[in-house]
Specification:
Strand order of the largest sheet: 4-3-6-5
Distance between the termini: 38 Å
Structural class: alpha+beta
CATH topology of the largest domain: Triger factor/SurA peptide-binding fold
Strand content: 15-25%
Number of helices: 15
Helix content: 40-55%
Number of domains: 3
Shape: globular
Largest sheet: 4 strands, antiparallel
Radius of gyration: 23 Å
Amino acid sequence: MNQRRILIWLACLLQAFALGLPAAAQGLRVPPSLSRPAQPADSGPRAADYIVAVVNSEPITNNEVRTRMARFAQQLAQQGQPIPPEPQFEHQVLERLISEKAQLQLAREDGIKIEDVAVDQAEQNIARQNHIDVAELRRRLQADGIADTSFRDELRNQLLLTRLRDRELESRVKVSDLEVDQYLRDHQSSTDPSTLQLNLAQILIAVPENATATQTAALREKAQRVQQRARAGEDFAKLAAEVSDAPGAAENGGVLGLRTGDRYPALFLQAVQSVPEGGVSDVIRSGAGFHVLKVLEKRSEGLPGAQVLQTHVRHILLRTGPQLSESAARQRLADFKRRIETGQADFAQLARQYSQDGSAANGGDLGWASPGLFVPEFEQAIDALQPGEISDPIVTRFGVHLVQLIGRRQATLTQREQREMVRNMLREKKLDEAYRQWAQEVRGRAYVEFRDPPS
């Protein structure tokens, strides 16, 4: 049965562990699955709460580890990836928590603070991505026993981590023209999955762990009937909501999201290798059950003739600091938005007068931009807009922005734009490597004491 009860958690907790996304992509993005994670099945002493480790002076409890394991296990199962053996899995999750605790402590020691307005924005983004308002988001969280204060604390922590990583790593990563040239030479005719952008939707027919051969055969036949219906033209999202056992299928139509091919399980990538955009795969089997995949988008990066959806935006940027807090900047931009929408002011004129960005002279116009050019929070705001609409004030590491979407277009990348896209992709990969090294350094400096479970 599909689970319709919702639990929103942060992609930087899930995707970085289960999908290996680069550090640069670890913004407050919601993963495709938004349903409640399965509860740990442990009983006896291990189910009791106790301290399993102390990072400097801050404890990590057994309940924290088990809850995080349940979340990761659900994400892995949805993606058709095997769950590691429990001792190994538990160790990996504990190490992840230790690393996070050490980084959060460093952020606080360095005086990095997240104001409430930034948490408000993150909460609004998550609600918008799930096509609900904040009140409905909170109602669903409460229905699942998650206090709003706990959810907001988790959001605040992830914002702290993101800002710390940005500050520590931005200056470490440079991509030269020679590296871009070499990449283009190596990948002009490459089938490297890291150059392939895929957006897939899936229907999962789950197979119980101890299913008999008869049960498995019946479930395979069910999956084949679903595949036939999908290939006959039935709406895939409705099919997913109707029959899929994947978490969140009823809410998101089985959509897994746009990412590079190497961020999908090898099983999925192989199944859709020769499937065109809009096509449906054969039935495939994983440890979770039988999958039917639909290719929603399929394109290559950095190759001649690549087609992308570009956006044309303009913005007003107010940089925050001792003279201007995030709250004050947000209030000022909210007033700008009200004045523009009531015809009392012109966006371009306000940008020329107040924006603290190099685009101010052009009325805040940033021109046509390909995906990946802006930071995640900025792109999320753009994605939610219709042409002509103005966002609410949004907070990024650069300050607080007011953004207006002017238009969208399908465009074939010029040679210069292809090079810029390749540069951004190489930069993300370098950020990934830099993050791993930096995280190890932070972890190595922390004092960690492991505790045995109570007897």
